[in-house]
Amino acid sequence: MKFRGILPLLFTVIGLASACKNKTSTTDSNPPKADRTEMDIVVADTVKPVPVESPVSDTSNESSSKVLDSIDFKKYQTEAPVSSGKAAIDWQSYPEAKTFKTRITEGYKNEAVDFAGHYVSVVFGCGAGCVLGFMVDVRDGKIYALPLGEENSCFFMEDAALMVPDSRLFISAVCKEAAESEKRYYKAYLWDEEQKSFGKIAESEFVKP
User: Fold this and answer.
1) Cα separation of 59 and 66, whole Å?
2) pTM score, whole prediction
3) What do you get for the CA distance between the two ends of the chain, in Å?
């Protein structure tokens, strides 16, 4: 009788010990996985990309600098650019410009006068080798189209839309006959403040000897 009473108790103890062992083994070999979403958030918040300098951009900047140095902007110098105060944009002065209303509004708001003493230019791409743009007069908010677009682009374009804040000279495009060519040719215009229009100008009139 005594032996029969001990056996059930013994089996119970053995069962409990086995269960504890299995539980410990399962916990050790399969640790709980962290929530992937939380891990991604931590990585996104703590890991920042390291900027890498590109030798290509350095070469491009050097080339642009040489082009600017070869152009006589001072020959067509205007008064010093306006540094404060901007009139509201007059959309009625150029209704077609409303197609690019967001671009023009943001550019005019954030940029300083960068052409002919009174104008803020807004230039943007319109496809491969194509550039469009407008300028806004800070004195009255009137909009004018810049001489850009397909008719003022070229296949081997080295630069485009070159200007300085105190000159009436606008370089629409700096071109080459071929990619490996050293010789450049220009598509350029001169702003007439009285007529409020651009007129073509020969490169012999502004390229430094």
Assistant:
1) 11
2) 0.69
3) 123
